[in-house]
Design goal:
This protein has 4 helices and no strands. It is an all-alpha fold and 75 residues long. The protein has one domain. Helix 1 runs antiparallel to helix 2, helix 1 crosses helix 3 and helix 3 runs antiparallel to helix 4. 13% of the residues are buried.
Length: 75
């Protein structure tokens, strides 16, 4: 995943996806979570989240599906 993150940071998104699709997903997610985290911290509450566990599962499930599909294709 480090290679995927490195390509993502350099703006080479196609190479990042090719290196590791799950890593690309996490890189995009981290990019989106940075401003959300800052806004939530400034407001002293989680913005747009009613139940954190459901929100976390909603972000985790696509990652797991991508990672499993990637490994199955590499077998």
């Amino acid at each position: 995943m480090t290679t995927s993150f490195a390509w993502y940071i350099r703006g080479q998104w196609g190479l990042a996806w090719h290196a590791n699709p799950a890593g690309f997903y996490l890189a995009v997610l981290c990019t989106l979570l940075i401003p959300w985290s800052l806004i939530s911290a400034a407001g002293n509450r989680l913005r747009g989240v009613r139940r954190l566990e459901l929100w976390g599962i909603g972000l985790l499930v696509p990652f797991v599906l991508i990672a499993v599909a990637q490994w199955l294709m590499r077998l």
